[in-house]
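User: Predict the complex.
Assistant: Input components as received:
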Amino acid sequence: MREVRLSPSGAFDNVPYPSAHFEVRPLSAAMGAEIVGLRLADLTDEVFADLERALWHHKMLYLRGQNLSHAEHETFAARFGEFGQDAYTHGVPGHTNVQPLIKEADTRSKSLFGSGWHVDSPFLPVPPGVTILRSVEIPPYGGDTAWANTALAFRMLSPAMQQMLRGLKVRMSARNNVYTQKQADGKELSFANEAERAAAIEGMAHPLIRTHPFTGEESLFIDEVYAVAIDGMTEAESRPLIDFLIAHITQHAFTCRLRWEVGMVAMWDNRACLHLAANDYDGFRREMYRVTMAGEVPV
Ligand code: SIN
């Protein structure tokens, strides 16, 4: 017998983070929230600390009408700590940490950068923590970004499944992404050098269940783009488990979706969510900038 999908009550907890400094408007029942009443370029330390706690709670935050410059984007991001390694892209002149993500109106590609469900660069020994993305030009429709809450998805698994997964490691590799982008565009993804390319393809085995360094919350650390095998299993043995977990995490109930406006900023916690950029706006230009912050070795 096949079980119908269940959504146990009590597990959806995307209630507004209680802040004295800003208004919080949850985006979906699963995750995400709009922050109203702040300008990111002008935060005191106290307000930033509150915003950071709101991010750990909601996993993804967004703000309208920020219109940050590259310098403001970088300065705001630096409040989260060290800049992370961005494996593929190169910064804009004068701001090496601000990575352009631009798709021109006449670009036709079957595979857009970021268009599968993924964590940013999990093949690195120290994968990124927070990513901060801002919009400069957006298509009139399409080009949304979606996120899936991997902590909620973990809580929704049975205790036996959770216990089994706690002992496993997953190998994250850039192999499939490099192959897919080449097939789609005929172009190689750019890495800083051959050694970095080889290391990204070799990848890293990280705990499949990771514990958040600031909240202690457990989440699933696995994705559609980079997860290639469970450590100690063959790829054929691993595939059904990986496929089940990706389908589980990305079911509609655990996601939220943002329709961008010009001048927005969205930030997310790669430790507790996956994200996906929709490749559905052929004929229109989309210009975004991203700063990725260092995380920690997942445990
Ligand atoms: C990314 O994967 O970081 C890019 C997301 C987007 O362009 O919407």
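Residues 23-293 form a domain with the Double-stranded beta-helix fold (CATH 3.60.130.10).
Let me know if you want any component modeled separately.
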